[in-house]
Protein 1
Amino acid sequence: MGLSQDGITCLVFAARYAHSRNTTAAYVVVDEILRKWDHIPGPDRIQLCKEAKNEATYNFDQWSRLYEKLERE
C-alpha cells in the first residue's frame, strides 16, 4: 500500500495541528504516522521528527515515539 504525496502532506498538517494541543490528538496522529511509517519517504520522516522535537509543546511521550523510531533505523 503506497502513500500519495497528498497523504503525506495530510500527516504533516495533522502533526503540526496536534503539536500545540494538550489532547489525545497527538496520540492519534503519532499512531497514524507510525502505521504508515514504511510508506513515508526518508526526508518526510526526518521532517516529521524534527518538527515533533522542536514544535511540540505537549504530549512529549507520544512525539518521542517518532524520533525514537527514526533513531532505530
Protein 2
Amino acid sequence: MATIKSFTDISQSKVLAEILSLESADMGWYYSCNPQSARNQMWAGTKAENADIPCWSLAALLGVLPNENMLVKTTDGEYYCLAKDVMTKHYDNPVDACVAMIERLHEFNLL
C-alpha cells in the first residue's frame, strides 16, 4: 500500500497554482541551495506566504471543493471523489483523488 501524502507534490502544486486562488494554499514548496552539497533542493514548509511554489494540504484541498463533494475510501483502501455528477478514478491517496477532482471540475468549468 502506498504512503498517504499529507500535501500536494511539486507537480500537483504547479498545476493547482494555475487553477486555484493562491490564498487557498496553506503550505509552500521552498527552493534552497544547500551549501554542503552541489545539489539544489526543494522542501515543503507550513507557511504559504513567500513560497516559491504554493502547496495545499488535504484539508485545504477539501476546503476548495464544492460542498456536495464526497471523498470516498473503498474497502480496498483506495480513494475517489464524487461531485456534481463527476467522478475521479481510484487513487491510493486522498490528496491525489482531490487534485484529480479539482482538475476535472476546472476542465468542465464547474469550479
Protein 3
Amino acid sequence: MRKYGVSVEEWLAACEAAGPGVRVEIVDGEFVMHRVGGNPHHFVSYRLAEELMRQWPGVIASPPAQWALEFAEDGEMITSRVPDVLVDGESLVNDPVFVGVPHAVAEVWSPTNTVKEMNRKRSEYREAGAPVFIEAFLTDTLDVHLEWLVLKDDRWVHVAAASGTGELRVEGERPFSVVPNALLRPL
C-alpha cells in the first residue's frame, strides 16, 4: 500500500488520460479505474440530479462529481470518489474537486459493483458525514429501485424505499418525492 497520497493535479490528469467511459478514483493512495455503467445508469443519475435540484431550491446536483474524502498530512488525497450524484452548492461548479460535506450523495449501483466496493463506499460516505445517501439500481425487470438513507448516530438509517411505479416520499426539512421509473423513462 502506498504511504502517501495523490495531488489534485495528478488526479485530474489521470482522469483526462483515462478517457470517456472510465472513472478514476483514489483508494488507499492508489488510482483505481472503473468502467462507467451503461445508458440506463447514466439516465437515472442525470434525472435524479435534475429532480434534486428542482425539489431542493438553491442546491447544485452534479452527475457525477469528483469528491476528495481523505487527505495525507502533506495535503495530498488518499481517498477520492466519483459518486454518480453529489449535491451541494457553487463549489460543484467552481472547483475542480469537491472538498467538504455535501448535502447528499447518490450511487447508482451496477451489476459490476462488488459487495466489498459498495460497503466501502457506504462506509466512506458515512465517515465523511454525508447526511443523505441515496442508493439506486435497476432490477432484473428493468424497474428502478431507490432507497433513501440518512446519517443518524454514525449509522445509515433507512427512511424510504420504492421501486418501479411506487412513489418514494421523504418528509422533513428537505422533502423529496419521485416515482423511481420516472428517472428512467416517462410513465
